[in-house]
TrEMBL record, chains A, B:
Keywords: Detoxification, Flavoprotein, FMN, Monooxygenase, Oxidoreductase. One of its GO terms (molecular function) is monooxygenase activity. Belongs to the nitronate monooxygenase family. NMO class I subfamily. Its cofactor is FMN. PANTHER family: NITRONATE MONOOXYGENASE-RELATED. Coiled coil: none annotated. It catalyses: 3 propionate 3-nitronate + 3 O2 + H2O = 3 3-oxopropanoate + 2 nitrate + nitrite + H2O2 + 3 H(+). CDD domains: NPD_like (cd04730). It holds the Pfam family NMO. It comes from the Bacteria. This is Probable nitronate monooxygenase.
Length: 367, 367
């Protein structure tokens, strides 16, 4: 069972902490993952270059281990004034309930601004010599890939289908995270539409492994040593875990978000595009139910994300999880509140025990 | 790694051939699976008791190994004349294209008839002493469970969520097949609705294993030794495989159906309820695309199934897969046309090589 990724990423265990955006990946979380033998990752999708620089310096104070960063590749988006009016109409009763004033000047981002911020993020990745950079929502331009590779930065793409993984390999990336339909948070599909890109890991991993030569990292619903060992059997070289790290003590996730995951079940987790304009997996709540009927008509990411920003924030300030985005993968029953080192140690312990179990099959039906 | 199911089912390998309905599970397929060390299963959902009796006798001529049968638990269904008129309107252009006459007297089943047929099926299972009986679409009545258990028939339920698996255990069934979102054919959910019951195996298996004491069998997207070993790592005691057996030489699947699977990709496989009125996974074609916009409004199973029967049949007679139900799991790239014994032998060979790979991890990151 080849395991190049531990060498390539300079880590002890083939465990990557998923780069969850929105304040979850604190310096404590990232550094503690790296200190415990995994790879900590900054979820920098929504961060400014200044914030990235500050966090990198903090992390370097806390660990000598390797760590990485994730960025969102800018996607072109379309919107009409009508779609914004429509969304605001639908959001109005919620704003009233929360006593949120609609912002006077809506902070609608422009594509050019999004691209500029992305370029600034890339610049700081190079300046700060962040050794590993992963991407979601597509593949960056050839120029950016070339520039990062010239600086010896290890590049990881995110794929939801075989053709996306092949494209990532062809564009010169070093590894690919395959995001199964089980995964929490935003879907990373960038070739086919979301419904056709919802492939379970049991299907997705071996089909990707057969189609690319770069190392494959499995992501989605993996929470423990069972998921790690299963992924390796399928041909992945490692795993990326989000929800399992989100409920850890060191994570910056909102208390309400952690509690929601710790108290829900797998059949209460749905796909919605109502929070951000992009399909994402999270826990069903009042917001997702209220918006369900109209969600297909809401504006694209990141427009809808801007429109719901104050609602999400105010909901959390008021201690209500009704209108917060409660991202979660499909295995919430396996989530625990614990320290990062306890989580990683228990994964390795369980992996070892499964290894012994697999060994004992010999003499049974494996002759 | 406990493996009670090989003892309980009296089989050599923990591999069950999924009981695919509609003529796929020929006596040759079922017996050859059993002769090769797995468990052959008759997909008898649509079969009369006479057909079941005849097939059982054929199979007993072809194998001394154990085999089983699967039945559909009758679900109450509602329909209005309007919904049938609506469906017929939508199907009309397709009937014209295929030159199919709308049946003069539409053979709309009544719930009472469905229940009577089911009771007849149960009777023949007992008479023919079929040793293993699995169920889809719910749990049979306490009386039926009691009667079958009194005859020492091993009972297997089908679950898509943890709560369904717990219910199956509580009702006294002996094992549970957990159907991941990857699975081809009809969804087996019977508590929550389909969208909330689409859980990938990587998430579903460990969460079910933690919640029940009966053995768990993983189903959905499993095609080879990698899927088998991954399922065992997740805590399942065996696997049930459909698509992998469907393209085998001994399967009775239509040539067009086999070719469609052998030539498609994972992101061309979708969920539709347009063929039968129940959500099912299969290959996108002209029929699923034509009906996509209106499928939510079509009548329930088995009404819609009756309405599309002649269309599906005529499409296949005309050598066109445009209007056939091309059920497939999410791993079509792993499908091969081969004999059952070649398939099973290669699964075991691959499982053995993975077992050796897992062993070699010791000394690496597993200390």
């Amino acid at each position: 069972m080849k395991n190049k990724i531990t060498d390539l990423l300079k880590i002890k265990y083939p465990i990557i902490q998923a780069p969850m955006a929105g304040g979850i990946t604190t310096s404590q979380l990232v550094s503690e993952v790296s200190n415990s033998g995994g790879l900590g990752m900054i979820g920098a999708g929504y961060m400014t270059s200044e914030q990235i620089k500050k966090q990198c310096r903090e992390i370097k104070q806390l660990t000598t281990g390797n760590f990485g960063i994730n960025l969102f590749v800018p996607n072109e988006f379309n919107f009409t004034d009508e779609s914004i009016t429509f969304a605001n109409e639908k959001l109005e009763p919620i704003r009233k309930e929360l006593n949120v004033q609609e912002p006077d000047t809506l902070d609608i981002p422009q594509f050019k601004q999004v691209v500029n911020s992305f370029n600034e993020q890339i610049k700081v990745v190079i300046e700060e010599k962040i050794p590993i950079c992963s991407f979601t929502f597509g593949i960056p331009s050839e120029e950016i890939i070339h520039e990062l590779k010239r600086k010896n930065i290890m590049l990881i793409g995110t794929a939801t289908t075989v053709s996306e993984a092949v494209e990532i390999e062809n564009k010169g990336m070093d590894m690919v995270v395959v995001q199964g339909s089980e995964a929490g948070g935003h879907r990373g599909n960038f070739i086919k539409d979301t419904q056709e890109s919802l492939v379970g890991l049991m299907s997705l991993v071996p089909q990707v492994v057969d189609s690319v030569r770069i190392p494959v990292i499995a992501a989605g619903g993996i929470m423990d040593g069972r998921g790690l060992m299963a992924s390796l059997c399928l041909g992945a070289q490692g795993v990326q875990m989000g929800t399992a790290f989100l409920t850890c003590a060191e994570s910056g996730a909102n208390r309400l978000h952690k509690d929601a995951i710790l108290n829900t079940e797998e059949d209460n987790i749905i796909l919605t595009r109502a929070f951000s304009g992009k399909w994402a997996r999270g826990i069903k709540n009042k917001f997702t139910s209220d918006m369900k009927e109209c969600e297909a008509l809401l504006p694209d990411f990141p427009i809808q994300n801007s429109l719901t920003k104050r609602i999400r924030k105010e909901s959390s300030l008021q201690g209500r999880d009704d209108f917060m985005s409660l991202w979660s993968g499909q295995s919430p029953r396996l989530a625990k509140e614990q320290s990062v080192s306890t989580l990683i140690n228990s994964i390795i312990k369980e992996a070892k025990s499964i290894q012994e179990g697999v060994q004992s099959l010999r003499g049974g039906w494996i002759e």
